[in-house]
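Rotation project, supervised by the postdoc (A.L.). Task for the rotation student: set up a whole-complex structure prediction and record inputs and outputs verbatim in this book. Inputs entered:
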Amino acid sequence: MCDLFALSAEVNYSAPKSLPIFAARAGRNMDGWGIGFFRKNRAYVEKSAARAYREGRFHDGFQRLARVVSSKFIIAHVRLRTSGPIDECHSHPFVLQLKGDDWIFAHNGKASSIESYRGQKVRLDDVVSDSGRTFEYLMDGIAARHEGSSGVFRLFTAVADTSRQLIEQYPGSYNYLLTNGSVLFAFSNHRQFLLLRESRNLERALLLTTVEHGLSEENWERFSRRSGSIGFLMAIAGSDILFKEDM
Amino acid sequence: MCDIFALSAGVNYTAQKYLPIFAEKGRQNMNGWGFGFYRGNQALVEKSAERVYDSEQVHESFQRLARVVDSRIIVSHISCPLSGGSHSAQNHPFALSFLNHVWLFVHVGLIKGIEDYQTTNEPGIDVDVYPARVFEYLRDQLISYLQYTSYESLSRSLVKGIRNLLSDYPGYYSFFLANESVLFAFFNFRSLMLLRESESYGNCLIVTSIEGLSDREWIAIKPEENTLGKLLVAAGPDVLYLGDVV
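Outputs recorded:
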């Protein structure tokens, strides 16, 4: 199963400590890696089909980027393929533009039912995986709710409603990170997220990962859906959880 | 009645297009003005006890600041006599550090009894005007909910704090509370005007108590009857949430 990492901070931050630990602890994921971040309002993604970590050594590019990338949001993904070919194009994160805003998306899970979906508003034409289709679906859902809103468009509500509809229409296991550079959404219906604020050993931003036991020997807070709910969604800005909703 | 203004954007942004008009339209408020914004994660406040608009001109320093200040969050307040005090220190915004942020606060309203509120945390705001007590009250509430459980939802904790505030000190509230990343707006008696500027116009969100800052399509949002008020949460140029506090 792939693994996810996110850093969220009030100001631009690098993750030279936590990103390599993430790659090492998620080392069983051998089918590629990617790091997404924002510079000004634009999203950038660097990715590879190579292993991020192998036999005690980090991929050179991954290691250098971990030191250099500086952003309020950093999203990283290490991949164990379950859908789509193994190549750089199919490594996460992905980027799409919607109404002038760049969005970064990374996902783990499996949802074969969504592979037939085709994006209405935006498309990742070169990507043939459930993750690519999931990203398109989310963007379409947000766009539709934006256009349908007669008054104020509410982004958290739109993401929550779209995610709920996604699970109903295309059942599967979803665990995604989605950000537009101002807010980070973290959703899961099958795995946990571990969060850490004010780390003494790593960066002092808010850190989030799917890696079991977290990235340090500190008290990582676990979040997973409650029994009876179909998933949970968090909205994070800076180092704060703004919203936390079981669906 | 005082007036308030807030800008929220994904990157540093200057409100030079709106702030002078905000000052001009708020000209009846003659008891001073203030600006709050962020440099990195430090909050900076500039304020004055002078009229924001006089002799057919917006205050010179206000104009200069409107041109120069760039920040992801900008809040501004122009004061009427009801806000209390005539020294610049008594003008809004107020700033307080808590929960790992420096927070900015501006307020319009009328509340009885809260001037006697004694904060339970340090530091207090060393001015004798009731909006400072409102800010301290909200700070104390947020700390009480979040100091031991920092993974709780900030928005939900604020809603709980607002409920307690309205229970302890009923009155008319309209305030902005912001940190470097997030803008909260709560109001229970006045409409606020909302504008999401498109990317070509700057990709930012403007919220203000004054109508008609431009000829674009502003949305009036107002509290519903039989609710405690309305809460808006914005991050960058997006409204994440707008709903009733009940």
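Student's summary: The CA atoms of residues 6 and 75 of chain B lie 4 Å apart.
Supervisor addendum: Chain B has a mean pLDDT of 90.
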